[in-house]
Amino acid sequence: MFEYNIEQKVASVGNVKIGGQPGENPIVMVGTIFYTKHAALLDEKKGEFDKKMLESELNEFVSIVEDTGMQAIVDVVGSYPDTLLKECLYIADLVDCPFLVDGLNDSSRIPTMEGLQEVGLLDRAILNSIDENTGDESLKRLKRAGVKNAVLLTFSNRAYNPINKIKLLKEVLLVKAEKAGIINVIVDTAVLDLVSIGVNLESTRLIKKELGLPTGFAPANAIYGWDYVKKYGESARCGAIASVMAYSSASDYILFGPVKFAKCVVPSMALISGINSYYRKRILRKTISEQGPLKKIF
Fold first, then answer.
1. CATH superfamily of 10-291
2. Is 0.90 topped by the overall pTM?
3. pLDDT, tens digit (0-9, with 9 covering 90-100), for 4-31
4. What is the 8-class DSSP label of residue 43?
């Protein structure tokens, strides 16, 4: 355990605090809905979904997060602007936590953010994401709409290693975020595949060390496609999922995949988050969140 030497920024979005020193705030658990093959998604183009199934999955996710003292964000995936807006509005009414507006591209993400501005929900909405291909016109629209929360995705063919990722962040993505008027910057170090997650972990540490920005990534992008472990059954797969999430625990947030896996992932992450908080409070003699797992699960 350690403490970064520079100030660590905290992004306050709705009822969630993302970032800070290790152990200062609970790791934010980001669960995904409306992903490919999500059983609750009945018609992607029309935005039709099984409300009963979705509510059951989200209620369980939120309940586990509250019980363990962690923090939650819902990742809302969609390819079509009208349906993505419809889905975000439904989620905003169903749960109190923030949500990622995770559109396929700018043509779905930005109209959704504009629609959320019209109904006063931008304080809980997080654009996912601004990347190296986000153009000036898109940035102007984001600024006109008053978007304040955004993920910066450090994905590029030229930015595979940690040094190049932070270079992309400094020279390109932060410049774009400033043009768009973004206040709460949240960095995603962009997972490529399962074996390269070590690159993401080191990138996260480097970004926090040099820039102090809230940083994390999505191990779920890789672990759920790992076919090898499936031959050992669901319990082994659950263990593998939990272990790679634990390996990623230096992050401020983790996209852990489908919300239905919350029971598999969140308790183990709460254990690690609580251990981090204990060290910060008892050894470093620093303040920690009043709502974290240290006061809930031990």
1. Dihydropteroate synthase-like (3.20.20.20)
2. yes
3. 999 999 999 999 999 999 999 999 999 9
4. E
